[in-house]
Predict the structure.
Amino acid sequence: MRNSAILVALLLVFVACKQTKTKRVSIGDDSEVMGTGLESADIEAMATLAKSLLDVPELTSPHLEEVPTVAMHPVRNETRHDFDAELIVRRLQTELVQHANGRCRFVIRNKADLAVLEEERNAKRDGEYTSKKQVVKKGADYYLTGVVHSLSQTSGKLEQDAIWVFFELRDAETAEVIWGRKYATKKVGRTGVIYR
Amino acid sequence: MSRALLLVLALAALPVVGACRTRSEYVAPRGETPAVTYRAILNDGKAGIAEEDEALWACELGVAAMLVGRESEAWNAFHLASRTMGTLESSSRETRRAILGEEATKRWKGDPHERAMSAYYKGILYWRRGDLDNASACFKSGLLADGYSEVGDHQVDFAALSFLLGWVSFERGQAEQARFSFREAAQHAPHNLLFDDPAPGDHNVLAVVELGAGPRKFRTGAYGSVAKYERLEPQVAALEIRVDGVSQGVSAQATDMHHQAMTRGKKTLDGIRKGKAIFKASAATAGVVMMNRGARKNDSGLMIAGAGALLAAALTNPAADVRYWTLLPAEIHFVPLQLAPGVHEIEIIALDESHRPIAGRKRRFQVAVGRRADYLWWVRAQPGNSIYGLFDPPGSTTSEGNRS
């Protein structure tokens, strides 16, 4: 009887002090540790949404004389959450490039990437590197851009963010909007009683 | 089961219901100079920081890194802190431990003014990197964090954050948001004349000035169950900035950190700690009385009950969590500047209450200004120390070396 009582006591201590183990989860799933800002699942959903861009006839119609070029511009952040806007651009670009199958082409407009490109081009033109072709950089016929807005509220017990991401494909010459989609999500976080 | 065995079980079970352990609270080391402080805090991290204190440690490291001109380290530190401070959710285990056991076992996420300041520093660092979108997001986030403070006039009254949001909004071409935020700043700091007509279009540098040491949090009341803040008076009342020998103005207070800390409002745990203190006192008294009577009457049952009450009293910890961010400033001020492109001789002079220069408290240096219209300088006058700051854009050749 004494031994079993000590065992129960030890078990209680063990249960109270047990540690959890890191595990792999799907990138498109909501995680256990979740804020009310944009999460990986949101970025993945945006990438899926952006695929409809490839149905726009101005980009992928077989009757086009030339393959159109699309530039991806940074996504503007108008929310209260800081995030890597470049991540959204890259994720969308990868999805579009993967599914475009050459029907339209994409050009980079990211300053850091362009700086790397410029270095390579200059080295070729200076004769430091070999070069098979030296051409003018491609201009964009269309550019894809986006803006993230949010409405944020808190009641002390709850924290709520409604987030809208608006994407638009614009004609780079006429400024016409030829495609637009929105991604919207709303998240409510409960403030722990020990932090109220 | 014998009574002794029952006592053993009770002894084993009580910490489980309450908390597995008691812990020493993290206090950031303070050296003679910011460089020594920075290294000491960094060494704390290498030695291992408890998960509960990680955000506090990171916040302290962030400011210390800014003081020694290590912007990238500060950036990483504040992002590490925001991983914890970004959500106010708590696990049931953490809640149970903080309520039934010691409050300081919960992960430190700061009081509302500390959460607001964490967002403020991130915003400053984003701005200095040229990322005005995320700077703006951080200032908004800081204002929302301030919304967790006392309901009423003191909710969202962080004038410095409103002003910064206004300025960055102007730089982003959002004139309406800028006007709204400037109005909000003026409303919460009516004594600051700058806020009446900030004219960001007429200035290409905004100097954010921090003075003194922020408020100290301490325990008081029965069993230290009440947490309070006390003001540490700043030795410097304002800073004057001179460019090429010409005064550009004297800084004026936008935010008083002590006021922000004092208006944090009533928290749920304040009441719980008060109840725990009453229980602890009552259980201790009852325990002594029962043990006494049991001994006199030779009643072992009463003695065991008395011992149980004393044990419960001993295990009840009503002490308030007084971990706080020690490297916060006492006040935030602003000075806008208009500098022509080129190299300038800058002189920053600490002033006393009467706006007279304080002997030996000034800094002179050269800074190169380019054609950007949105430079942000961060200046800090430490009590008993020199004037420190981040001036040139990160990565520029003269940005390091912040000692005066």
Remarks:
- The radius of gyration of chain B is 25 Å.
- The first strand of chain B starts at residue 205 and ends at 211.
- Chain B touches chain A through 38 residues (CB under 8 Å).
- Residues 11-269+320-390 of chain B form a domain with the Serine Threonine Protein Phosphatase 5, Tetratricopeptide repeat fold (CATH 1.25.40.10).
